[in-house]
Amino acid sequence: MRKTYIFSTLFLFVVSLALVAGNGCKGKSGQKINQRIENEFEFKEKLSQYGFFKGELRKLIPEEGVVSYELSTPLFTDYAVKKRFIVLPKGTAMKYTANGGLDFPDSTIIVKNFAYINTEHRNVMIETRLLAKDPKDKKWKVMNYLWNAEQTDAIKHISGAKVPIALLDNNNNKLLTNYQVPNTNDCKRCHIKNDVLTPIGPKARNLNFTVAGQGKNQLQQWAAEGILKGLPPINEVKQLPNWADARHFTLEQRARAYLDVNCSHCHTKGGDAYNTGLFLEYEQTNPDHLGIKKAPVSAGGGAGGLDYDIIPGNAAQSILLYRMNSAEPGVAMPELARTVVHKEGVKLIRDWINSMKKSSL
User: 113 burial class (0-12, 13-18, 19+ CB within 10 angstroms)?
Assistant: First the structure.
């Protein structure tokens, strides 16, 4: 009798476990609840499945709650036209941190879309990149989506791709290139600092400006809408200069801002290029870290036979400019995110280096 009771109890326990594993527990509404699955973020197969945009997907018209944003100085990617959005969970807000950063709530998704202008002066979508803050482990995760030829949707694409395109640069010059859609590991290389994957562009200092046509500072607008908490008086928030705005910022300010956005995510302590000793953050003041009369550490053939990263007053003999002015693999810097030379950026850095006094620093 005792053996039968034990067997029956054990049998019922096993059956109960099987039912829970197969169906999940049900709440009052009858909806299945599985805490492990509910708290783990999973990337969808198609961009359209997220519901970020309404109407024709390629037009990127944001749904309510999808916040568009712009950067004072954006990273260069083959003259790509970029549209950026932040998707916050309903009822949540970003928080301004003491060090001038932004703390995003769990389940935030940052959306970055890339298009190019073709020879018919039409925008053609190439890729969309997502950064998602997984609520399960509080870590950011990345995924790329490659747009189809019909321009109707973008499909999850992990392995990267090379897309032959004919584009127009800022002066309507035709350029032929194989645009490189990065694989997820490439994305991680740029976004990882101290072994932690983090957003690059949306920092408070790079959002602290008035977007053309909006009439109000971007950060102040978000604070007024309740999606940004803890914003101090705007004059206490650092501002990254617009590299293209020679009217309001000096040549040095613009050059340093350009290097910060395009290079410092790797060239910083804890970044992918930490071993080079070349640190290009906007706040950096150490001449050696900035490359002033500094010999390269790991450039190899990429140095072009030149001796120093930056020679004040002599851009033509500076490794920094030499690598920026190349699209050759193994030489070009940044080595990811571009396949053509950014002529305007090269001119800016050339002018900056040549403006330095040869005896300075």
Answer: buried
